[in-house]
Specification:
Layout: H1 5-33, E1 37-43, E2 47-53, E3 59-65, E4 74-83, H2 84-92, E5 104-107, E6 115-118, H3 121-131
Antiparallel strand pairs: 1-2, 2-3, 3-4, 4-5, 4-6
Helix pairs in contact: 1-3
Length: 138
């Protein structure tokens, strides 16, 4: 049996979705262990992680992993800080996960166009900690 191009693309997307999900869940597990954030990971067109800060419950960090812009070696991610209650209100009004743009408190400069990182939790944690001091793991 021959594999068609579409089947290859679907397999590649599935593999990238799994790698991004694993990355975001690993970061979330580290945040739970250090009690700095409660993680929520969602799979939709892309993969989204929301890290709800435990020291400031009004804030949540949204990290989006782009399937189509990630490769098998590097993850393309965007991150920003959201107002947690505003995000929930937008969702109640029908806003889809990852589209809570009106809840943004702060864009992170390096992430504005997305950045490429290894599929390594420590790498993502280090970059996020540069923008959100509450996420520094010690």
């Amino acid at each position: 049996m021959r594999t068609t191009r579409l089947e290859c693309e679907d397999k590649t997307r599935t593999e990238k979705r799994a790698r991004l999900t694993d990355l975001f869940e690993d970061v979330g597990n580290d945040y739970l262990q250090y009690n700095v954030a409660d993680p929520m990971v969602y799979q939709s067109h892309d993969v989204h992680a929301f890290y709800h800060l435990t020291t400031d419950l009004t804030k949540v960090v949204h990290v989006q992993g782009y399937l189509d812009m990630s490769s098998d070696k590097k993850a393309r991610v965007l991150a920003r800080l959201l107002d947690y209650e505003h995000m929930l209100n937008l969702r109640e009004q029908g806003c889809g996960i990852g589209n809570e743009h009106n809840a943004v408190i702060k864009d992170f400069n390096a992430f504005k166009q997305g950045i490429e990182i290894d599929y390594d939790p420590k790498t993502l944690e280090t970059v996020l900690a540069q923008y959100v001091l509450e996420l520094v793991l010690e």
